[in-house]
């Protein structure tokens, strides 16, 4: 139903897939009509069950957010959600065919960077060139678009040293579509909030970006303020800064750390986002993918990582703002920030203010039972009832939960007792798997010290609950012989290990350093996927992500019956639903490795592709962007 005109349209469900999923295909062109006073169409979506004696109507909630998809030069559509989390299908018509919408524009230390989309209704546009035209002299600077940011997106940089002194320039794009050359003015509809719009150059030169009333973009170069003028301006700001510092100091002195969460903080004036990965033990995973895109598109937003002290060196080396967990400063930043983005749970005693939007990216597609679905919790320091209660209480602090597929969505609802919004957009960390090019994989191998002339086998087993020995001590040994592996594959293959952080220090591989690499503490597991020709795992959910690469996967569940019957159990049928072969002992494992390394592309394997279509097909390489846009929509609308 269209919200403004109350027009309605019915589409029959023509296909019912397995796992209680229905599919309806629509043509976006059908969802707008000629109206003298309407150019924006906002469709709500309902499911109607025509039973024999009654009609059941249920509104559909939003599990999918998209960026704008250009239908024609003058119209676009996108999927959104309303304030209640219900799905909206938006179409905008009667745009000017003289305008081209970009996604972001920023000034870096050396260049003017622009990102935008290079498709219209799915058709790639060709030979894009960005033009900076001087409004005074009509002189033009012309730059080809040669860099792809994501599939469907371009990125281009203009050197700041090219921009003429004392000039005002306007940005245009020239490209080819359906054999026709088109020139359009670049525009940006959203505000420039969060983007970097000023840069200082040597010689007291300043470059700024300004947005015009008609959404056009001006690039201005001018001489900066003199030193006396800067000192006067700084003096005017000093009093306010000192007042803020005193206020913060007063708050910190009010109570000790354990009472700070009850201090009743107010949010920062400027938007602040806190990122955390695996309880602060890493700067990684989906939160890091989202953070990096925020840094590119909206570097003006304040972003801080919540970390353990072990991550200080990494943050300093990469110029990442951070706060140490469980310090007074950490409490203050958490309580005054407007957004939390995490892939794991915060401690139950952390208070979430009502102005915080808490986005939970989670950290894997569930194979093993989770949350309320675990009937007997054997983790140290808790009971089953306490674990269930804490899990549900924590989960329902999440305002939005990222899901990679329909399968996960259904499990998250039941296992977490989760009643808030689900964003079914794929995991942002997997964007890298879709967008990375072969030459970039070579760079990663060089960085990791992996020989370029050898194949790479990755072993990434799960952590088992029964590996806990006593507090601070965990047990583990490899379930296959490294001597056997070296004898079979050592000449042209290397083995990389990715163990759970709790047991990674329990391994001694010092005698095998010529072909075994332990990357258990390497922060970005996607890099390890990319360099690997074969994944070996058991019950870890890593194979859901690795499947994006359509490379072979082997399963080595050497303790399958114990794990299935005495530990957590599974959601999938382990023998039937996996995308690769199962080896039950080390002899079978070595034989299957031989076979898998000879069949590196699984695209023609029907069993594998059935799995891929069920669990991976939703991710288009833009998941990070969708989360960024979700946050920016909240900021723009003042939610």
Automatic annotation (TrEMBL):
Alphabetically list the UniProt keywords: Cell membrane, Membrane, Teichoic acid biosynthesis, Transferase
**Keyword Disulfide bond appears in the UniProt entry:** no
- Source domain of life is Bacteria
Listed GO molecular functions?
CDP-glycerol glycerophosphotransferase activity
Asked whether the UniProt record includes Cell membrane among its keywords, one would answer yes
Query: Which BP terms in the Gene Ontology apply to this protein?
Result: teichoic acid biosynthetic process
GO CC list: plasma membrane
The residue ranges crossing the membrane are none
> What is the membrane topology noted in the UniProt record heading this document?
Peripheral membrane protein
Annotated InterPro entries: Glycerophosphate_synth, TagF_C, TagF_N, Teichoic_Acid_Biosynth
Q: Where in the cell?
A: Cell membrane
Family to which the UniProt record says this protein belongs: Belongs to the CDP-glycerol glycerophosphotransferase family.
The entry's protein name is Glycosyl glycerophosphate transferase
- Taxonomic source organism: Lentilactobacillus farraginis DSM 18382 = JCM 14108
């Amino acid at each position: 139903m269209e919200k403004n005109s109350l027009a309605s349209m019915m589409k029959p469900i023509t296909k019912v897939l397995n796992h209680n999923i229905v599919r309806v295909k629509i043509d976006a062109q059908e969802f707008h009509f000629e109206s003298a006073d309407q150019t924006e169409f906002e469709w709500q979506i309902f499911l109607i069950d025509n039973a024999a004696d009654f009609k059941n109507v249920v509104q559909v909630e939003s599990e999918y957010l998209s960026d704008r998809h250009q239908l024609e030069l003058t119209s676009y559509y996108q999927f959104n959600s309303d304030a209640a989390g219900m799905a909206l299908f938006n179409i905008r018509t009667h745009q000017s065919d003289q305008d081209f919408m970009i996604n972001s524009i920023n000034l870096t230390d050396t260049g003017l960077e622009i990102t935008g989309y290079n498709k219209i209704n799915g058709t790639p546009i060709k030979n894009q060139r960005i033009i900076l035209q001087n409004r005074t002299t009509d002189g033009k600077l012309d730059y080809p678009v040669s860099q792809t940011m994501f599939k469907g997106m371009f990125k281009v940089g203009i050197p700041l040293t090219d921009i003429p002194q004392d000039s005002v320039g306007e940005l245009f794009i020239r490209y080819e579509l359906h054999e026709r050359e088109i020139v359009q003015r670049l525009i940006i509809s959203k505000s420039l909030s969060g983007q970097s719009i000023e840069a200082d150059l040597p010689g007291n030169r300043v470059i700024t970006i300004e947005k015009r009333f008609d959404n056009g973009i001006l690039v201005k170069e001018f001489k900066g303020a003199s030193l006396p003028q800067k000192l006067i301006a700084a003096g005017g700001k000093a009093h306010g800064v000192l007042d803020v510092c005193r206020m913060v100091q007063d708050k910190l002195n009010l109570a000790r750390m354990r009472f700070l969460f009850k201090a009743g903080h107010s949010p920062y004036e400027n938007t602040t986002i806190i990122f955390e990965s695996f309880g602060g033990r890493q700067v990684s995973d989906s939160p890091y993918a989202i953070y990096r895109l925020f840094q590119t598109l909206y570097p003006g937003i304040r972003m801080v990582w919540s970390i353990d002290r072990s991550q200080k060196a990494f943050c300093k080396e990469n110029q990442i703002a951070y706060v140490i967990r469980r310090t007074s400063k950490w409490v203050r930043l958490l309580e005054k920030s407007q957004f939390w983005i995490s892939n794991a749970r915060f401690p139950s005693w952390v208070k979430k203010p009502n102005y915080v939007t808490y986005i939970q990216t989670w950290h894997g597609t569930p194979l093993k039972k989770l949350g309320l679905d675990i009937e007997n919790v054997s983790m140290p320091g808790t009971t089953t009832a306490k674990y269930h209660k804490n899990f549900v209480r924590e989960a329902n602090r999440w305002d939005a939960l990222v899901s990679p597929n329909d399968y996960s969505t259904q499990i998250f609802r039941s296992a977490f007792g989760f009643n808030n919004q689900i964003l079914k957009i794929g995991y942002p960390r997997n964007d890298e798997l879709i967008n990375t090019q072969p030459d970039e994989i070579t760079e990663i191998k060089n960085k990791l010290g992996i020989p370029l002339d050898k194949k790479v086998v990755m072993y990434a087993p799960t952590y088992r609950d029964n590996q806990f020995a006593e507090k601070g001590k965990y047990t583990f040994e490899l379930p296959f012989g490294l001597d056997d592996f070296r004898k079979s594959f050592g000449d042209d293959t290397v083995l990389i290990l990715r163990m759970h952080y709790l047991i990674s220090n329990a391994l001694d591989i010092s005698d095998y350093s010529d072909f075994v690499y332990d990357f258990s503490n390497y922060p970005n597991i996607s890099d390890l996927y990319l360099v690997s020709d074969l994944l070996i795992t058991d019950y870890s959910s890593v194979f859901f992500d690795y499947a994006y690469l359509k490379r072979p996967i082997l399963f080595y569940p050497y303790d399958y019956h114990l794990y299935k019957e005495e530990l957590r159990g599974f959601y999938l049928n382990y023998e039937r639903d996996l995308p690769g072969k199962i080896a039950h002992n080390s002899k079978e494992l070595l034989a299957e490795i031989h076979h898998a390394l000879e069949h590196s592309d699984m695209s023609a394997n029907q069993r594998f592709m059935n799995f891929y279509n069920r669990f991976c097909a939703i991710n288009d390489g833009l998941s990070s962007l969708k989360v960024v846009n979700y946050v920016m929509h909240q900021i723009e609308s003042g939610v």
